[in-house]
């Protein structure tokens, strides 16, 4: 298993995740929201 970060900023990252079954590229940036704030 391999996890490679292609790009990042304060709100997220673009990654490439590789397993024995194939590769997944994360095309979307998903901000993390703390519901307790």
UniProtKB/TrEMBL annotation:
InterPro entries reported for this sequence: TGT-like_sf (IPR036511)
Alphabetized Gene3D superfamilies for the sequence: Queuine tRNA-ribosyltransferase-like (3.20.20.105)
Gene Ontology process terms (BP): tRNA modification
Protein name per Swiss-Prot or TrEMBL: tRNA-guanine(15) transglycosylase-like domain-containing protein
